[in-house]
Design goal:
Number of strands: 10
Number of helices: 17
Distance between the termini: 27 Å
Largest sheet: 8 strands, mixed
Length: about 375
């Protein structure tokens, strides 16, 4: 066992709030490193603010070191989001992963992960049949495992993501120890705060309306707005051929034709996504695809696992953790983008995502911020 225990968490901090602070208070280790989505987030949206600002608030809230989850995993399915993040933590050499869950029962979640990793043929066929009938993958999975797994285990979003982290550990043969913290306060997408904790979506809505969310988050500023990319996304789609769109990540089963038809009739990301979505194709999946089409994010890119550590922010203890992680890992550490000369599809996509996301900002919409911004360092002596 390592003398300096490092716990990893996977997050988006969109924004960092009191629920995240509670999770950190339940972690007992020498340092906490967060793998955080950068410019875009898994729900198919631009992040509330640039990645350095969100990382700064995370360090102010108790995280020691924040590194970036490459955009090709942040803008992906739950399975690939989890695999990319856990692979990065594994490559860094952390000792433990801690995630929030509605269940709070790590053994129940572990059993579910093991069962799904060794899925019986009969269950796989059920999942396929349910999807063929028009269900989304998460709904089909829940229905297929009904009676096999505890009720509600696959109906709660953080349980589902936690199971995916555990499946990723199995797939990677990782020695990382998994732990979970039972979520308290407002649940995922709850519009009303509970026990002094509001969910991130409710906080974002308050901020977008120009209200104050000071009771729940330290975040200040004008939120980024995805609608500022409406014309760019629709214009790009109108110039794409079906074959070009088929190569974009997560486009399958003729979905390209449905998307291209919507692009001819709609003038915004939101209206196009509403027209495209069905019970089978969720709003989040569609919006991820629309953003990916503008970024040129093709399905082959997510076949690569993260192979670098991009530092966004840290405190004094985070510097110590980073030094220890460098000792444990062979992954290159990027603190200055200009110094990283290796040709890398994932890194190039991160740069592109930052440049495109800048267009969603209210004021500073310049390109090239990856080369102009240094990691945020907060002295916690």
């Amino acid at each position: 066992m390592n003398e300096f225990k490092i716990t990893g968490i996977v997050t988006e901090y969109n924004p960092f709030h009191s629920g995240h602070a509670y999770q950190l208070s339940q972690i007992h280790s020498d340092a906490v490193v967060a793998v955080m989505s950068g410019s875009f987030v898994q729900r198919g949206d631009v992040a509330l603010s640039d990645k350095w600002t969100r990382a700064k608030y995370a360090v102010m809230g108790g995280v020691d070191l924040v590194v970036e989850l490459p955009a090709v995993f942040a803008l992906n399915t739950a399975q690939k989001f989890a695999l990319g993040a856990v692979s990065l933590l594994d490559g860094m050499g952390v000792d433990e992963i801690c995630f929030g869950s509605e269940s709070g029962d790590i053994e129940a979640l572990r059993r579910a992960a093991e069962l799904m990793e060794n899925e019986p043929h009969s269950t796989s066929e059920k999942v396929k049949d349910f999807i063929s009938s028009g269900m989304s993958y998460p709904t089909a999975l829940e229905k297929a495992y009904a009676g096999t797994l505890p009720d509600n285990l696959l109906s709660s979003p953080n349980n589902i993501l936690g199971i995916e982290y555990l499946r990723a550990l199995i797939q990677l043969g990782s020695s990382i120890t998994p732990t979970t913290v039972k979520r308290i306060g407002a649940g995922y997408n709850d519009s009303v705060p509970r026990d002094g904790i509001a969910c991130a979506s409710a906080i974002r809505e308050i901020l977008k309306r120009g209200g104050s969310a000071d009771d729940f988050t330290e975040f200040k500023g004008i939120p980024n707005d995805l609608s500022r990319l409406d014309s760019a996304v629709i214009a790009n789609l109108r110039m794409m051929t079906p074959d070009e769109l088929k190569r974009i990540n997560d486009v399958s089963e003729g979905l390209e034709n449905r998307i291209l038809r919507a692009a001819q009739e709609c003038d915004s990301i939101e209206s196009a996504a509403e027209k495209i979505k069905t019970k089978r194709y969720t709003m989040s999946r569609i919006k991820r695809i629309l953003i990916s089409s503008l970024l040129g994010f093709t399905s082959d890119m997510s076949g690569h696992l993260p192979d670098y550590i991009r530092v966004l922010a840290m405190n004094g203890n985070g510097k110590k953790a980073l030094k220890e992680l460098k000792r444990r890992s062979n992954l290159p550490v990027i603190t200055k983008a200009a110094d990283y000369k290796t040709e890398n599809l994932l890194f190039d996509m991160d740069i592109r995502a930052t440049n495109i996301a800048a267009l969603c900002e209210a004021s500073d919409r310049r390109s090239g911020k990856d080369f102009l911004t240094s990691p945020i360092i907060i002295d916690n002596k």
